[in-house]
Design a protein that fits this description.
117 residues; 2 domains; 3 helices; 3-stranded antiparallel β-sheet; elongated
Length: 117
């Protein structure tokens, strides 16, 4: 975990016990599953992190207009090239998993066994 910068001062974060901290004493605790949240919403009152309902709806509407259909097709074909029937694919990303859901449907349409988590 030595590739992280402090979101407050941009100094190197170092792992010490169960937290990441920088030379300026900004500290971010690791959760039990070794997850660390570097968002600053708690430090800056009134600031909201993440997308609000309007932004989520706008993104969903945009994605459903299939502007990225050709990219989705190429991704699906590329994944097909490197996986086999019954293979488990893990996508660790963020958002609404639009690509993941559509790639899953691509494999279901090919009658491949798939695991959806």
């Amino acid at each position: 975990m030595d590739n992280f910068l402090c979101p407050v001062c941009r100094k190197q974060l170092n792992l010490c016990n169960k937290s990441l901290s920088c030379e300026n004493k900004h500290s971010f605790d690791l959760a039990k599953i070794e997850y660390v949240n570097l968002l600053l919403s708690k430090q800056k009152k009134g600031k909201q992190h993440g997308d609000d309902k309007l932004m989520v709806r706008a993104r969903r509407d945009f994605l459903n207009k299939e502007y990225f259909a050709s990219l989705l097709k190429k991704l699906s074909e590329l994944i097909k090239k490197y996986v086999w029937d019954g293979c488990v694919i893990l996508y660790a990303g963020c958002g609404e998993c639009w690509y993941t859901a559509n790639i899953y449907e691509y494999f279901i349409a090919m009658n491949w066994k798939a695991l959806r988590l």
